[in-house]
Specification:
The chain is built from 6 helices and 39 strands. It is mostly beta strands. β6 and β7 form a beta hairpin.
Amino acid sequence: MNKILLCALILACTLAVGLTAQTQEEQSDIEVVVTASRVEEPVEKVPAYVSVITAEELTSSGQTTLADALEGLAGIRFRSFSGNAALAEISMRGFGENSHGRVLVLVDGRRLNRADLASINWLEIPVENIERIEVVRGGSSVLYGDNAVAGVINIITKKGAAGFDVAVSAQYGSFNQNQEGVEVSGSSDLFSFTITGEHTATDGYRDRSAFRSLAFGGNVGLDLESLSSGLALSYTRLFYELPGALKKAEFDTVPTQAQPGHDADEALGDYLNADLSLSFSPTERFLLSGKAGYRVRFIRSDIPSFFIPSFTDLTLQSVALTPKFKLDLPLLGGNRLVVGVDGYFDHANVATYSNISRSTTTLETQVSKATLGVYAADDLDLLSSLTASVGLRYELARITAETLKTSGTPIDDAKLHQAFVYDLGLLFTPVPGMKIWAGHGTVFRYPFVDEQVSMYGYVTDTFYADLDPERGYNIEIGFEVKPARWLRWVSSGYLLDMNDEIAPDPVTFANVNLDKTRHLGAETAIELSHPKWLEVSGNYTFTLATFREGTHQGNRVPLVPLHQVSGKATLRFPLGFNVGVSGSYVTGVFAAGDLDNSQAMLPDYLLLGTFVRYQPDYVPGKLEVYVGVNNFLDVAYAPTGVYNGIEVYYYPGEGRSWKVGASYRY
């Protein structure tokens, strides 16, 4: 707690200095987002806590992955079992195991979440191809359906700059970490295009934690007066090693070592995406749009160290069709109606083998998930400063399994899930630059296909016919104040009660519905910026996640920290030099599987970093050079761990690291 008070005091002093140095400036231009309502609207009209990261902020931060860029935001935390950021598991609003299943991640409105338990590949979208990232906190099940329990993150890709634009970037750092990227884009009155490529690799902080990623992406667009369309294609190849976990004595002595016996665990995946979009708007009051997408993943994983050695080939295909229309009606002060249909079909072919040569098949199974949802959301301006919103969604999902080949008992079964959810909200904007909101709604999440169907040989392969979807209801209040373009303060508080959260039983390893849980929390952030010499931001997150009933009533949900604090300050000097510091503090958590809270918590940790950026004005185009050090105190910490019923195993975080990089755009 002393460390929290110290961080808060430092943050408060820094903000006070910044505030006294500012002079009142005019209101900033209106910022428009699309994620909160699935159509464009100003941030000030969104009844939620929204954060936006721009392409310029991504470049200047020197971050090499989306996970690194997002982790400094309020209410967001990452943990990794693989030792790298490529498949890091995101957590929002107090969820523990498989928390990524409660956060929906989109690319231009297309789902990036996989139908199975694996986390998304954060390197699928090259950083060079990102125009901005929108983060909407809170439940959005009405608009987006499955997975949108705790928040939605939408990655908006670039559509082509006016004329012709070329950008290149490169980084090198500790553990042979390197990243190289290129972007070529352009546009005319009717057409636009963007082509990007990115290579990222590292030997890893720990032994056997290397990964390599090669990603290509591109899109072309047609923009007529009332009709626009676009086609986007991308391909990613990802290889990564799995270092395993460490016992406490191993973690305390040599945290960089791999788990003994984990010298051959690794995976290789190929990811392909194709998306077609169409938008028709003959008048400002009417919009008809839709997206069609196809994704395929080929993933080969070898985990010989497991107590039952695992060698698996997975082919995962996904098809999506999501039409919608928006209608603005002249009712009272204004009325906006959005109605849409979301159709998804995911098909997984899983083959498991008894040896790495794949000469003996133990199980080959086909699992599919078909989802169809219909939703409607309406915003009505009761007064010029008061807007009411209501939304409804009904969705069906059917998960089926069919065994093609097995050495044991076939898995042939099916289950139909359904969900009906609603949202109610009020938004009050008493003066420009201020909004206050309150909302209530319900949320849901369907089981992953490999939660519903055990098919990897870890336990008895079976269909969990009794496994139900997760359901919950949410109450939220918040406010945002932006009195000037250089100052923003936003805070929100929420109560999220969940039923039937899904997690593996620590004794039987079977997937089960847990007892009811309660997620009580608050998130607050302050941002201020002087265009000439100072930029400061800081945030604090409080999360109390507990069991509401059952054997573990009153216990904390594992892997959820009670407090998180982070901040960043940048001083701008003459001649284009910027110097900054950053820091984050996270309190300890109980390890995954420790539902009794009987084991010692994973320790809290404080991480500090520093960086220098140089942006000369005399160079044609835009040149930026970056030098940074992360965790410069070289703190040994473990953001995640697992309790197996006997002892706690630790997954270490990265120690001190440095990197240098440069980017140039012309």
